[in-house]
Design goal:
It contains 18 helices and nine strands. It is an alpha/beta fold. A seven-stranded parallel beta sheet has the order 1-4-5-6-7-8-9. Strand 7, helix 15 and strand 8 form a beta-alpha-beta unit. Helix 4 runs parallel beside helix 8 and helix 15 packs parallel to helix 16. The protein is globular, with a radius of gyration of 20 Å. The model has no long low-confidence stretch (mean pLDDT 97).
């Protein structure tokens, strides 16, 4: 399988994922390919967002833009796609509304609305429906020429469920909360269905060439600790448990797996035991405390600068980098940390300020002579 791709020249992130001590911490950031880059808008042209995702040539071009702009500063790429391709594959209509974000014109309103049983019982052929993602991954691996490894990803079942019933982002999650407190069993049935599709989708991404995968639970923080244990944790665990054997069935090696339960600070200890190699931290975590929580477990932490610091001065960026380097105890540990932001890059960030962030990480973590 690996023979069709050029050999990897930078395996830093894979070595860290395996628990090895390394010369410096690897760096990538969520949404590193995207609208803050002027070249993104040029390549996107008049296409809508999902058209870009569905065109392997365009998706691969967008994936590579930050690797080319920040040459030698980044240690991973992540395929240009969206978490909502799974609800689309399940038969739901999703539109990307300019300046507003994703919108479902016909969300799931109750278990009796007809669409619920259709979605739940539909036989989804993830290989066929999301073929464009796998084509984009394979093409991107070839174009990367081994410069850095490539991440595949999916949305976590809980987060996808939120979008499917809410119809988009929300501040109060009225529909979502109505579902879990009125229809808990129907909610769990749909979460299980989504989980099974996630496993197959991630396995096919690895088959196509993804070298690591991340599960984004962007709305995990909307759950109370007890609700998280019912509606998020079991399904995150399901993916971690079932992906490696599914890869084995397909004749593929396991790949490092990242879980990112954004906002669910209370679940860090549980996240370390879910079966993932890497746990993503948002900016609400104190790095030193997170390292303490991990303890002796062979877990790598990823994160966790406040993305908002990129609107600040260079002095502020340096300070945040220093805090992370000290908090993750890099000088002593030299392992167990992948540098990232605590969430995706936000719009209107100056790409040069992000470059400065990367340069400061390199400057403040590199071992002399290596």
């Amino acid at each position: 399988m690996g023979d069709q791709f050029p050999p990897l020249k930078n395996d830093l992130i894979l070595r860290v994922a395996r628990g090895e001590k390394v010369e410096r911490p690897p760096i990538w950031v969520m949404r590193q390919a995207g609208r803050y880059l002027p070249e993104y808008h040029e390549a996107k042209g008049g296409r809508d967002f999902f058209e870009c995702c569905r065109d392997p040539e365009v998706a691969s071009t967008l994936t590579l833009q930050p690797i080319e702009r920040y040459k030698g500063l980044l240690d991973a790429s992540i395929i240009f796609s969206d978490i909502l391709v799974i609800p689309q594959a399940m038969g739901m209509v999703v539109e990307m509304v300019d300046k507003k974000g994703p919108h479902f014109p016909n969300p799931l309103r109750s278990p009796d609305d007809g669409q619920y049983s259709e979605v739940l019982n539909r036989q989804v052929d993830v290989a066929k429906e999301l073929d464009y993602v796998y084509k984009a991954i394979t093409l991107t691996r070839k174009k990367l020429q081994g410069r850095v490894p490539l991440f595949g990803f999916c949305g976590a079942p809980w987060t996808l469920f939120c979008y499917m019933v809410e119809g988009g982002g929300s501040k109060i999650f009225k529909e979502t909360k109505s579902w879990i407190y009125k229809y808990p069993e129907e909610t769990k049935a749909l979460l299980q269905k989504i989980s099974e599709l996630c496993v197959e989708y991630l396995a096919l991404q690895v088959k196509a060439g993804a070298q690591l995968i991340q599960v984004f639970d962007s709305w995990a923080g909307e759950l109370s600790p007890s609700s998280f244990k019912k509606f998020s944790q079991p399904y995150l665990e399901y993916i971690a448990k079932h992906l490696p054997p599914r890869l084995k069935e397909m004749g593929l090696e396991p790949v490092p797996m990242v879980v990112f339960p954004k906002g669910a600070w209370y679940a860090l200890d549980a996240a370390c035991d879910m079966g993932y190699n890497i746990v993503g931290l948002d900016w609400l975590h104190d790095p030193a405390q997170a390292v303490k929580t991990v303890g002796d477990r062979p877990i790598v932490l990823q994160g966790n600068a406040d993305p908002g610091v990129l609107y600040g001065s260079h002095a502020a960026i340096t300070e945040v980098v220093k805090e992370m380097v000290e908090g993750f105890d890099w000088a002593n540990r030299r392992k167990g940390w992948i540098v990232n932001l605590g969430h995706g890059i936000t719009p209107f960030v100056n790409p040069d300020d992000l470059k400065f962030f990367f340069q400061e990480i390199h400057r403040l973590t590199k071992t002399d002579g290596q």
